Amino acid sequence: MTGDLIQRRGLMLVLSSPSGAGKSSISRQLLAHEDDLTLSVSATTRSRRPGEIDGKDYHFTDETSFQIGINKGEFLEYAKVFGNYYGTPRALVEEKLASGKDVLFDIDWQGTQQLADLMPEDLVKVFILPPSVQELEKRLLSRAQDTAEVVAGRMAKAADEMSHYPEYDYIIVNHDLEKSVSQVEQILHAERLKRRRQIGLSDFVKQLRDQAQ
User: What domains, with CATH codes, occur in the chain?
Assistant: First the structure.
């Protein structure tokens, strides 16, 4: 009820985790449950794959245009991965936040640091941990998408990724997907109610006081 009465600024919800800890599964369920939550769509210089839609899967662009965007400060965060650039267009995110929409980011700790440097007041950072190293390896192997060598590499990288947990606001141990989704939803709902995000609160309280007098 309060959310309908008081204008709110959106927030940026970041989910980070080692590969296999479950952030993608949590993200999918959140997007299905939360009407005011949209997934951040990255820009990339890589070629479009069959079935991908420009503007939905990625904003596809060329390297020259991407470099110009970097120089103009048009990205909230960006990185070069396997020879291709990936980045978050700043204008699209700011437009959604101003309209009261929340934006979900499925990014690593490095991208999260870049967001924190630029827009810390709008950022809510959640780190997803596996219940055990054994369970993490089991999940990676059960996906049957990678070779044993690739899985070993992901496991080695996971140790470094997990060391960055102190940089996040909330920590969730994902031993049960349904419970983890519920916990992230509770975080999202509480953060939406923070005073600084309710930009229409002063006018609303003024109306209440005027009516009470």
Answer: 2-40+101-212 (3.40.50.300)
Residue 140 and residue 151 in contact, taking contact as beta carbons nearer than 8 Å: yes
CB 88 within 8 A of CB 77: yes
Distance CA 141, CA 69 (A): 38
- Angle, helices 177-192 vs 23-33, to 10°: value is 60
> What's the CA gap between 46 and 62, in Å, rounded?
8
Which residues are paired to 44 by β-bridges?
Answer: 60, 86
The first and second tokens of residue 67, run together, are 């470099």
Residue 181: how many other CB atoms lie within 10 Å:
21
Query: In this predicted model, what pLDDT tens digit does every residue of 56-86 receive, in sequence order?
Result: 999 999 999 999 999 999 999 999 988 999 9
Mapping DSSP onto H, E and C, the string for 33-98 reads HCCCEEECCCEECCCCCCCCCECCCEEECCHHHHHHHHHCCCEEEEEEECCEEEEEEHHHHHHHHH
Query: Which pLDDT score, from 0 to 100, does residue 3 have?
Result: 47
Question: Which SS3 state, helix, strand or coil, does residue 48 take?
Answer: coil
DSSP H or E run through 201: helix 201-212
pLDDT of residue 2: 44
* Per-residue pLDDT tens digits for 81-138: 889 999 999 999 999 999 999 999 988 999 999 999 999 999 999 999 999 988 888 8
**Secondary structure element (H or E) that encloses residue 159, with its range:** helix 148-162
Of 212, 210, 208, nearest in space to 200 by CA: 208
- pLDDT of 38 reads 96
